[in-house]
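Dear Dr. H.,

I hope your travels went smoothly. While you were away I took the liberty of generating a structure for the chain from your last submission, since the lab meeting agenda had it listed for discussion. I wanted you to have the full record in hand beforehand rather than looking at slides cold. The sequence, exactly as received, is reproduced here:
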Amino acid sequence: MDRTDRCVRDEIPFFQPTPTADRPLAGMTVLVVEDSRFASEALRLMCLRSGARIRRADCLASAHRHLNTYRPTAVIIDLGLPDGSGLSLIEEMAGAVPRVPVLLATSGAERAAAARDAAKAGADAFLPKPVDSLAAFQQAILDPLPPHLHPRGPRTVAADGVEPDPLALREDLAHALDLLNSDPVPTGYLRRFLLGVARVSRDTGLLETARALPPRPAHADRANLRALLADRVAGMATV
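The corresponding predicted structure, in token form, is as follows:
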């Protein structure tokens, strides 16, 4: 390619979508660091409705690979990840220069404690699971941004939510079964994962079972949880 070709290429303008009242996150990229497929699907639908692009990482290592490649507008980080705490990534990103414009935490565990820990680590805000309000999701991303990145004029507040694909929930439940059948069982991570899945899917039975799971579950505890998960998976096979 000669100099003329390079000049022509450089003069081609880069198209950047402009935020609008009905697509307030247009032109933005959101990195979701979340191990639950069902929770990720809900956030994907919210980004789609809001005009934002989305990328997903399911662990800390994958998140670092993404961040080494591009700089997103917003990062939403689950606090309980398979290879460590999301708080460590929040602390790292909060102290980075340049800092990402929006740094959010999310969790399905004990919400008050998770919100305090996230704020202490440097998150701009905390999104408790389930993140089921499109308006709250959009506002959490817009609030830390400078005014010139906000949509102009009045914005319609979306009162509805989204309905993630049930197949994504089935994948989460099957993954929990795999974890339960591993040796040794990663009980701490499994409990946090199930709490998040239960909250997002509004499964009160699974939520109570996950809450009651002891640090060292006995054979009966594992058998009861295995039966519950298998029953949920079997019930969804006909959906």
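Two observations you may find useful: The CA atoms of residues 170 and 235 lie 10 Å apart. The chain has two domains: 29-149, 166-236.

With kind regards,
E. W.
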